[in-house]
Amino acid sequence: MGSIKANESKTDMTPDRSAAVPQAVAGSSPSEGVSRPGAPLWATLIATFFGIGRMRPGPGTWGSAATVLLWAVLAHWLTPSLRTPVAYALAILVTLIGIPAATQVARSSGSKDPQFVVIDEVAGQLIALIGAPLAWKTFLAGFIFFRAFDIVKPPPVRQLERLPEGAGIVLDDVAAGIYSFLGMQLLLHFGVLSK
């Protein structure tokens, strides 16, 4: 009896943390795509690019591929003179919205750079495609360039990753996108890709 009473009083004095922080789905962790409550819906939708970041395997690759496909569709509806300014505007907009969204989701997930946050890949991939002709070869080249620079992370890409919260999540991919853009422009200049 005495031992039961002691255990009860210990339990009563210990705060119930399970009510304050709901548990993730069994067998999963925040880096596997389940974020704790706390991130606003807008931030989760933007950061995961409307759920694409939850696709497996390689959510970053899915985010890049979706961006290429969506840009291909959108660019076909634009006049040639509007394509480059719209690509610039979208890349800037995605970056500016992506940083606070990634910050909110990273905080709620408890991870510095959750894999399911792919808005950074969207921003970088858009930059890689700025000024690229609408052809499957240029889309494929832009995709390969961006994925390669995003994975290898040459300086200063890796250094930008160390910036705090959403800035570090997004700006390293922006830098990888700039490298990709420069590579694409070189291929176009030397005629490796047709203009």
From TrEMBL:
Which residue windows are transmembrane per the record?
A: 62-79, 85-106, 126-149
Q: Its GO biological process terms? A: lipid metabolic process
Kindly indicate whether the keyword Hydrolase belongs to this entry: yes
YutG/PgpA domain location is 45-187
| InterPro entries for this protein | PgpA, PgpA-like_sf, YutG/PgpA
Where is the segment annotated Disordered? 1-36
Give one GO molecular function term: phosphatidylglycerophosphatase activity
Q: Could you tell me the keywords of this UniProt record?
A: Hydrolase, Membrane, Transmembrane, Transmembrane helix
**Stored SUPFAM superfamilies:** YutG-like (SSF101307)
EC no.?
3.1.3.27
User: What is this protein identified as?
Assistant: Phosphatidylglycerophosphatase (Modular protein)
